[in-house]
Design brief:
This protein is an all-alpha fold and 423 residues long. It has a single domain, classed as Proton glutamate symport protein, CATH 1.10.3860. The protein contains 21 helices and no strands.
Length: 423
């Protein structure tokens, strides 16, 4: 499937999104400061409906775009040898990036020590119950169920991207195997992908409203004061993200050279949406479009990007070690804070367990709860960071988008399938 290059309107959309984000902050702050708690809660719940509308519009097109683009991409790749080669290169990037992200989080939280001296009375113990319930289902059996689809209809209904990927790979390989008999289906799926990508353009008109709703709700509910209370934790985490960005961009420059700057310009819109909505799903369809406009082969994009959404969440990976060690420091758990070997073991466990729970709301915190319990990290510790998680989530989601864009561009380059975009 080829994207038809048209004169760009993405810069306008980016500015609209930034404007909506700033307006949302201003409105949310005004409501928080001038109205009672009951009114604030009502306002937050209602204004967030704008975000709900936008996210649901995006979610309705994720399953068809993943299936159509990936099945066509696999069919055009032609054989399992090529699929294996491309998948191997992608997984090499994913595992390396995950290890780097986890290690950076661990090193920086040990340097900054944001949890030392924190008043644990701030912990919101009541809000942890729902996350605890989700983390109880965290097991090898649940991991297998999460990966292997029972029904493609069920997987599409719940937007389980990894399950859709598994089905699409089998479907695409079978489609390639039957040769000419499958050409009409390839053409039909190709046409479907074009239609869905056209829908992406329509849905993106709603993005500024979704961004406004998300920011206004978050600030109205928590206020800017919460940023002061946990300022050191949030600040240290964002410094960590900047370091991670620096590493990712250095590697990106070594692979892409000057074209890295073209890529960053291309994904500015998707990254701003990811930051302001704290939702990776909100970005996926637009990111597919922008990566193909950048010049990545559509076969590579449709294969690597869905995999990345399950296996290459760099910002989330860094947050797991950072948040876990913050809680250990706050509760003075010396068996972890004073034992480097325990920290390394925890890092390696995170590397594995983080792959089994993608797609769950607040997945990073669920993994911290499930895995941290193995090392004596108290569940109520997550209550310390629940209130400000949305602000950290914005940064880690944007970082996830950058990491997946770089991975897709790198694999395209390694495969000799990166072309110069015409716009």
């Amino acid at each position: 499937m080829e994207i038809t290059h048209q004169p760009t309107k993405k810069s306008k959309l980016t500015w609209y999104i930034i404007g909506a984000m700033l307006l949302g902050i201003a409105v949310g702050y005004y409501v928080h400061e001038n109205y009672p708690a009951t009114t604030v809660t009502t306002f937050s719940d209602n204004i967030k409906l704008l975000t709900t509308i936008f996210l649901r519009l995006v979610q309705m097109i994720i399953a068809p775009i993943v299936f159509a683009t990936l099945a066509v991409g696999i069919a055009k790749l032609g054989d399992m040898k090529t699929v294996g080669r491309v998948g191997g290169k992608a997984m090499l990037w994913f595992i390396t990036a995950s290890l780097v992200s986890l290690t950076l989080g661990l090193v920086l939280v040990n340097i900054f020590k944001p949890g030392v001296g924190v008043d644990i009375q701030h912990a919101d113990k009541s809000s942890v119950a729902d996350l605890l319930e989700k983390s109880k289902g965290f097991s090898l059996a649940k991991f297998v169920e999460h990966v292997v689809p029972r029904s493609i209809i069920e997987a599409m209904a719940t937007n389980e991207i990894l399950q859709i990927v598994i089905f699409s790979v089998f479907f695409g390989v079978a489609l390639a195997a039957i040769g000419k008999k499958g050409e009409s289906i390839v053409n039909a799926l190709d046409a479907l992908a074009h239609i869905v990508l056209k829908m992406v353009g329509y849905v993106m008109y709603v993005a500024p409203l979704g961004v406004f709703g998300a920011m206004a709700a978050a600030i109205a509910k928590n206020g800017l004061g919460i940023l002061a209370t946990f300022g050191e934790y949030i600040g240290d985490f964002y410094v960590g993200l900047l370091v991670l960005w620096f590493v990712l961009l250095i590697v990106g420059y070594l692979i892409l050279k000057q074209r890295l700057f073209v890529l960053l310009k291309r994904i500015a819109g998707p990254m701003s949406i990811a930051f302001s909505t704290a939702s990776s799903e909100a970005v996926y369809p637009k990111l597919v479009e922008e990566m193909e406009r950048f010049g990545c082969n559509n076969k590579i994009v449709s294969f690597v990007l869905p995999l990345g959404y399950s296996f290459n969440l760099d910002g989330s990976m860094m947050y797991m070690t950072f948040a876990s060690m913050f809680i250990a420091q706050a509760f003075n758990i010396t068996s972890i804070t004073g034992d480097v070997s325990q920290q390394i073991i925890m890092l390696l466990v995170f590397l594995i367990t983080s792959k089994g729970i993608a797609g769950v709301p607040r997945a990073s915190l669920v993994v911290v709860l499930a895995t941290g319990g193995m090392f004596g990290i108290p569940p109520e510790g997550v209550g310390l960071i629940l209130a400000i998680d949305v602000f950290c989530d914005m940064g880690r989601t944007m970082t996830n988008v950058l990491g997946n864009a770089l991975a897709t561009a790198a694999v395209s380059k390694w495969e000799g399938q990166l072309e110069h975009s015409s716009s």
